[in-house]
Structure formats: C-alpha cells, structure tokens
Amino acid sequence: MKKDVIKRIVLICAVISISALFIYATKTNVVQIAHVDYPTQMNFAQEEVPTFMADVEERLDREMVTNMNYHTNTTLVIKRANKVFPVIEPILAKNGIPDDFKYLAVIESSLVNAVSPAGARGVWQFMPTTAKEKGMEVNDYVDERYDLEKATEAACAYLKEAYLKFGNWTLAAASYNGGMAGVQRQLESQKVNSYYDVLLTEETARYVYRILALKEIMKNPQKYGFEIPAHALYSEIPVKKIEVDSTVTDLADFAISQGINYKILKIHNPWLRDKSLPNKSKKKYQIAIPTSGYSK
Questions:
Q1: Could you tell me which InterPro entries the record lists for this protein (predicted)?
Q2: What CA–CA distance (Å, rounded) separates 281 from 279?
C-alpha cells in the first residue's frame, strides 16, 4: 500500500516537473510582482500629473496594479507595439501630436482592429459617422477605419481640434473617450479647467490614468515583470503598394496574381471588407502586398 502511494507521488511530481518545463519553454517569462514603486513624478505629453493629490495617486495606482497583473493583454500589447508603433509614430510627429498618444491607441484597442459593442472599429476605434467626418470611406466593401495609416491621420485631426478647444493635451485625450462636448459641459458645470479636478463618468475618469500606466509599463517592461526577448516581439513585414483604380471582381484571383493568397491579402489590407472591390468612380486605392515573411 505504501509503495503504491509513493509511486503515485513520484508520478505526480514527474508530471508537474514536465509541465513546468513545457510552460517555461513556450511562454514569455512574466514575473508575479505584487508592487513596484513607479515614479512619483509623471507626465502626459509633457503635462505634469499632480500625483501629490490623494485621489490622483490612488487612481494611478489602480491602473498600474491592474495592468501589471493583466499579464496576457499587457504581454501582447508589448509584442504588438514593436510592429504597430513604427507606423503610428511618424504620423503623430508629422501632425504635431505628442508621441504619448500612441498609448491612447493601446488602451482603445490593444493595437488590433477591435470591434466595440457600440460599433467603433479599428485600432483607433472610430464610429462610422465620425470616420466619415474625418474623410474615411466606410461601406460594405471598404472600411478605412481598418487602415492603420488613414485612421491614425484621422485621429490626429480629431486631437488637433480637441487641443485647440481645451488648450492642453490631457483634456484632448480625455475627450477622445468622453467627447469634446461632454467634457466641456462637465468642466463648465463644475467650474474647473483641469482633467484632474473634474468629476467624469467612470470610463472617462479612468482614461488618462490607463494611458499613463501603459506608457510607464511599456517603456520599462522588465521593471514591471515583463521579460520579453527581442526575438519574441512581433515584427513589421515589408510590403509594396499596388495602385488599383478599377473594379476588382475577385480578390482571391487578384491575390494569386500578386503571388500571395486571399488570406494574406486580407491580413495586410483589412480595410477590404468583401471578396470584391467595386470601383465605378475610378478611385485610386493602395493595396499592400507583402514582399517577405511568408516563405522559407
């Protein structure tokens, strides 16, 4: 009887050991850390965060703790940023938008073409009406909210308008979630002029703090327990752009003519929403074709 028990214990230990080795070999090393001292002085777009205020300190701490321990999502956004930020950063710079706004895209969509219950889509989460107002095409065949470059340009246009309205980038960021009119209404009714002084809805009240937390963690991943080797980060895949100014009746045939398949075509052109591209107006579309990354 004792021998059977011992054998079972040995077997269980062996299984646990093998499982541990398998997990270690296949996952990014994430260290469980209950607390890490983050900087007492923080800024968003060079605008100081008043961490000396008790509620500000606590709100920021909530988002730091949440995202430090949201291991799956935080690991993935760090990996994706290596591929997505090089597209976003030069567009922000060209438009005079502070680089910190790339972290707004992180909290909006986790850097994927997300779809919200309300109907917002893409990395920058535009609603159809706002997208069209910002010059993006949105229909059954083309949805430029899924075009990272065009959506980033549209986000820049919105943020510039918001900055002109509020006079600072922190409120411009908050308005991306709460709307310019909504944020302005609360500032006026409460007789304040700072994001850190106004009482907003729960989602908008957390919004800038979430940006600050992801900015701090993503800039210093190892400090917060995310040890991700360079080879594990996602990489940009080089592409060439093919100009199309006529109807494409079958995108699968078009993909094959370019030396790829339909799946790869849609991965690199998620703004193509159907199996064809009607184009009676002869509009010029730029279709991305990868030049490497899919062959040995």
A1: Lysozyme-like_dom_sf, Transglycosylase_SLT_dom_1
A2: 5
